What does this fold into?
Amino acid sequence: MAEKRDYYEVLGLNKGASEEEIKKAFRKMALKYHPDRNPGDKDAEEKFKEVNEAYSILSDPEKKDKYDRFGHAGVDPNAGFGGAGGFGGGFGGFGGFEDIFSDLFGGGGGFGGFGGFGGGAARRNAPMKGRDLQKDLTISFEEAAFGTKKSIRITKYVKCETCNGEGTAEGTRKKTCPKCGGSGQVRTVQNTPLGRFQSTTPCPDCGGKGTIIETPCPDCHGSGKVRKTITINVDIPAGVDNDSVIPIRGQGDPGENGGPNGDFYVVISVKPHELFRRDRDNLYIDIPIGFHQAALGDEITVPTLDGKVSYKVPAGTQPGTVFRLKGKGVKNVRTGRMGDLYVKVQLEVPTKLNASQKKAIREMGEKVGADCYKKKSGFAQKVKELFS
It folds into this structure.
């Protein structure tokens, strides 16, 4: 049996990742390996299971603590640490999983028709949800902060308007397959030295659907769908960030046998800003000031995403001091609360001085005594004591 990979590695995270980082990584990985988006791909199926298992542990604080301390042994029911809460016999029973999949894939249950986790294969003529689609969209920093509307052009399958998705030519209908009698299956019997064996296989004439099309639609050739370039309007809420996923229900490929359409997922990528750095809902900016401004205090102009504001830098401000402007960050996409803007003061030393400027600085240095510099005088005292 193959050795299990580290759960943090499975989700592409570093140990100690926050709850929000774990959720975001899970959304991204689950969307990437979801069976509806990788039909028939056994490798993707295994990775999908692996991602689910990792999330079931790391999303539970108690299990995560045991895993962080003892590794896989901490969540192995046979190792005496309390186990992983029954993981492996299905996907129910761990907190947050159903909620997050409801948000990603439009509800729990069979995960869009994927039946590889314990149930038998569905009949081929049963309703099946259409394939989910994904599109990456890059937006500006400001668009992510304030929200925007975008129109995305995508070429995908849509229901054939000529036959209304039936696949039959005008004036004709599907007929019951004469070979299987509409069951979609045929039985074969083999006589062997060990006895008689009976097996059931999909009907070769109708492909397991139970019906046949004698006169197919001239536009879709019997498939019931055609490829078409359409425009999808997307409302992007304020506060989205890199890897945010916006689901648009029913805009994926058409369903099969009367099943619902798949969904369309827009994965957001945000361009960096020239001045601001973002961490969740908070913004950060470095502002250079001169020595006289730091020493005497001054009113400086601070840029924000919604305009400029004035801020009074107090006298004696030290390099690296950080001021907070409350509510000047980014809106939280879920709660609507505003983050803050953190302003870090960077002391800039003048360069390219002329003779008179150099003289003025020397005179200032002579007049501003050592007692004005607490750190400088304290350091000098320690050096003196060390070498006395």
